Every structure is written in C-alpha cells, then in structure tokens.
Automatic annotation (TrEMBL):
PROSITE patterns: HIS_KIN
Biological process terms in GO annotation: osmosensory signaling via phosphorelay pathway
The UniProt record lists the keyword Kinase: yes
PANTHER family the UniProt entry points to: OSMOLARITY TWO-COMPONENT SYSTEM PROTEIN SSK1 (PTHR42878:SF14), TWO-COMPONENT HISTIDINE KINASE (PTHR42878)
Protein name according to UniProt: histidine kinase
Keywords tagged on the record: Kinase, Membrane, Transferase, Transmembrane, Transmembrane helix
Domain (Histidine kinase): residue spans on this chain: 262-480
Transmembrane portions of the chain: 12-33, 39-61, 73-99
Annotated InterPro entries: BphY/WalK/GraS-like, HATPase_C_sf, HATPase_dom, His_kinase_dom, PAS, PAS-like_dom_sf, PAS_4, Sig_transdc_His_kin-like_C
One function term, GO molecular function aspect: phosphorelay response regulator activity
EC number annotated for this UniProt entry: 2.7.13.3
Length: 492
C-alpha cells in the first residue's frame, strides 16, 4: 500500500506541470460552458489562458526525459501555481476595490482567469530560469572543483592574459597564490625562445585547427627555467592551456640515452677486443680452437649483434609515428621482397585479402613494416627445425586481412613460420611488460614489435601451429587505418 502510494506521488510530481496546464484548460472550458456568449468574444477571452495551458502541457511533456525531471517539475509547478494564485488574488482584490469605490459592476470571472493564466506563465518562466541557472551553476562548480584538484596546471587565457589559473599551474612557477598570476600576460611566463615559438607556431595552429601541443620552456620569477609539456585548445574568446613540468621525465630520458650509448659503445669495443685476442689464441694454439676459442667468438658475435640491434631499435622508435603511410598490401609485399633477397634459401610467401576493390585497401603507418621485418628475420634466423628435417630452408608466410569480430572490424597482419616456436618465457615477458634475459637478440626484437603495435593502438598475439611453428598476429582497429571499409571481410 505504502509503495503504491509512493509511486503515485512520484508519478504526479513528474507530470505536475502538464497537470497544472490541464487544470487551467479545464477552468477555461468551464468558463466558456457556463457564461457562453458570442464566439468571437469567447475566442478573445479564452485565447491567452488556452495558449498558456497548452504551453504548460507541452513544456511538461518535453522536459519529461530530463535527468532532474521531478525536481524541475516541482519548482516549475510551485512557481507557476504560486504566481498564478497571487496575481489572480491581486486582480480580484483590485476589482473589488473598484466595485466599492466606483460602483463597478463588471464581471469578475474573466479578468481573474486571465490574471491567473498570466501569473502561471510568469511563475513557470521564473521556475524554469531558476532550474537552468542552478543546473549551470552546479556544473560550473563541479568543473571548477575538478580543475582545482587537477595535478596538471590549467589556465584560461583571454586576450593573451591569464583570466583563471588553478593552484597546480601557479605552483609550476613557484607561486603560492594563484590570484597573483591572473591578469598577467601568458607569454611572459616563458623564455624569449619559447615566446618566439608561441608567435611562430602556437598562434597560427590555434587559428588554423584550434589546437597545439608541444614543449615550451617556462621561466619562474627567480629566473630559473624548466621544460613544459603544453597543450593549448582554442575557446570562443580565448584558449585553455594545460601545462605539465617534464623536468624529471626529460632528465630520466637523457640519463637513459647516455647510459645506452656508453654501454653499447663500450660493449662493442670490448667484444671487438675479445674477438681479436681469441683469434690470436686460435692461431697460436689450434688445439684450443674448438673447445675454447669458438665459444668465445660465438658469444662475442652475439654481443655485437645485440648492440647493433639495440641501436636499430632506438632508431626505429625515434621515427615511430613519423613514418610515411603505406598501403597494407604493399607493406606485405615490401617485407616479402626484402626477405627473399636477404634469405635466398628460405621460402617466403605472401597472402593478402584481394576480395575488395583496390580503393578499399587501407593504409598503415610505415613502422608496421619494421615490425614485420623483425618477425620475419626472427623466424628465419632462429629456425633450426628445417635443418634437422633436412629441408631446403624455413618457410615463412606473411599475410594481411580484414577480420570482423562481431561487428568490430580489425586489420590483421600475421607472420607464420614452421620453426621451433618462440619460447613461452619471451612471449609472456613481452606481453606482460616484464624484463627477461634476451637470447640471441630475439627477445629485443619482440619488444620492438610490441612497442610499434602499442603505439599504433593495436595488440600483439602469439599462437602455436598444429604442425609446428608460431603464428604472430598484429591486430589494429580498422578505423586507425585510412580508407573505406572493404566490401567483403573474413570472419574468424
């Protein structure tokens, strides 16, 4: 019983505005039926109340799907009925005073109904304005609290001056009171070189595409400088600046680069010296060549190859994202042509999805070619199954196709081989992001493949073939590739 009453009360509250409108229409109908008169006169008398009543019904039904329907309906209804009653009472009181002072004997009902409807319209408008104002006020308060709590520095710039900054933005410059920055010029917070970049790059980019992102050197009041990762987005009358201090990130990257180059250089030099001495030992003592010298030479060769591969990985990642776009099928053919030239003893095959027209073939970032080359090299160079079986050489197949996974279209490149398979430890290390010992540089190559795939918004998968070997899949969302959807797709 209580639940039913509560549901009825909620329902009435949600539809209270249309109910109020219907009530006004009922009053108008009762007036017309009771007093009658010429049609033209009745139309004039009922037009305003009828319009306002229908307006209440339309407004109540139109805002029925709002998130705050009940609250909105309560406020608009209370405002409408309250103002309508007050204006109607005031009108009745005025007519009564006229009748007393001036012996006025005109009708009371029609003026009161018109006053009631006018008051309801005014009260409903006030209620609607109040609801909208409080809604936007709460949204602004929520946004303001979110901006103030942000760890990134956020500033609103109008006419090249700070109109608003949060505490994180002020702390970037060592300022405790954010209000002291407001009203100052934005560009003054940067070095002369950064100001030149703002004039040369930022302002033209905002005018052209309403967005710019890059690195600027900020300058504190004490003269110290620091690098910022800055994002600028245009507004109707200014722009929003999001800044982050990247001093630690840049220092860490520089340390890693220095250590990487020094270690790689020293590693290569040391390995070269070891190979030289091992060769001399082999010449002086041929008996030691098999048991001692050959293992030394093999290990030092592996070290040098690993150092070279590390440098190759570094160069590839430096240009990742800046590579030219390439046709997906052309990427496969490029990888296959290179592999056939580099490994004449291997059997390298290609398979592309030619079901659609040429125009439907998407383009991909050229760095995908580096990833496929690495997988093919790994498949050929670390394939001992072909030698043990006495075959001419390993077989590798490179393919690309569009695959529909329950409505999600993806572009997939696969590299399949008939070799020993990639060790599970290396697979898990790469997929889980954990460190592991690199064997013959193959693990480093898999890291490179995974980094390229992740930067392209895709995912990397490994699978064992039933007859031996591994299938490596590079899967990308089809929307990341340029070009229309193909007419025909394969389904796994």
């Amino acid at each position: 019983m209580f639940t039913s009453a509560r549901r009825t009360s909620t329902y009435v509250r949600e539809y209270s505005v249309p109910i109020a409108g219907l009530g006004l229409l009922a009053i108008v109908a009762a007036y017309v039926a009771t007093f009658g008169g010429p049609v033209f006169l009745l139309v004039l008398e009922a037009s305003v109340p009828t319009t306002i009543g229908l307006g209440h019904v339309w407004y109540g039904l139109r805002t029925r799907t709002d998130e705050e329907t009940t609250r909105r309906a309560d406020i608009v209804t209370v405002g409408s009925i309250t103002c309508g009653a007050m204006v109607a009472l005031f009108c009745a009181w005025c007519i009564y005073l006229l009748s007393v002072r001036m012996d006025f004997s005109g009708g009371l009902t029609q003026p009161v109904i018109s006053a009631l409807s006018t008051g309801m319209a005014f009260g409903g408008l006030l209620g609607h304005t109040y609801v909208e104002f409080t809604h936007y006020y709460r949204e602004s308060e929520r946004l303001s609290r979110a901006v103030d709590a942000s760890m990134d520095g956020i500033a609103v710039v109008v006419d090249d001056e700070h109109a608003y900054v949060n505490d994180a933005y002020a702390s970037l410059y060592g300022v405790h009171d954010a209000a002291t920055i407001e009203g100052t010029e934005w560009a003054e917070r940067y070095t002369n070189a950064a100001q030149a970049t703002i004039d040369r790059e930022v302002h033209p980019a905002l005018a052209e595409r309403n967005y710019w992102r890059g690195t600027l050197i900020g300058q504190r009041a004490d003269g110290t400088t620091f690098p910022q990762d800055v994002t600028v987005s245009a507004l109707e009358h200014g722009y929003v600046v999001v800044a982050r201090d990247i001093t630690e990130q840049r220092d860490r990257e520089q340390r890693i680069q220095v250590l990487n180059r020094v270690l790689r250089h020293n590693l290569r030099n040391a390995a070269t010296v070891i190979k030289g001495h091992a060769s001399l030992i082999s010449e002086k003592q041929p008996a030691l060549e098999r048991e001692h010298v050959r293992p030394i030479l093999e290990e030092t060769t592996d070290l040098i190859e690993t150092a070279d591969k590390a440098r190759g990985v570094e160069r590839t990642l430096e240009r990742n994202g800046d590579a030219d776009l390439i046709d997906a099928t052309a990427a496969v053919r490029s990888v296959v042509d290179r592999a056939r030239a580099a490994y004449p003893d291997a059997r390298v095959l290609s398979r592309t999805d030619e079901s659609g027209a040429r125009a439907t073939t998407p383009t991909v970032d050229g760095s995908v070619v580096d990833a496929l080359n690495e997988l093919v090299d790994n498949a050929v160079e670390h394939n001992s199954a072909a030698d043990e079986a006495g075959t001419d050489g390993p077989t590798v197949e490179v393919a690309v196709r569009a695959v529909d996974y329950d409505g999600e279209l993806r572009l997939e490149f696969t590299v399949a081989d008939d070799g020993d398979g990639i060790p599970e430890t290396e697979r898990r290390a790469v997929l889980d992001g954990a460190e592991t010992q690199l064997e013959h540089g193959s693990g480093l190559g898999l890291w490179l493949v995974n980094w390229i795939v992740q930067n392209g918004g895709g995912d990397l998968r490994f699978a064992d073939r039933p007859d031996g070997g591994t299938v490596v899949t590079l899967s990308f969302p089809y929307e990341c590739a340029a070009g229309p959807r193909p007419a025909l797709m394969e389904t796994p």
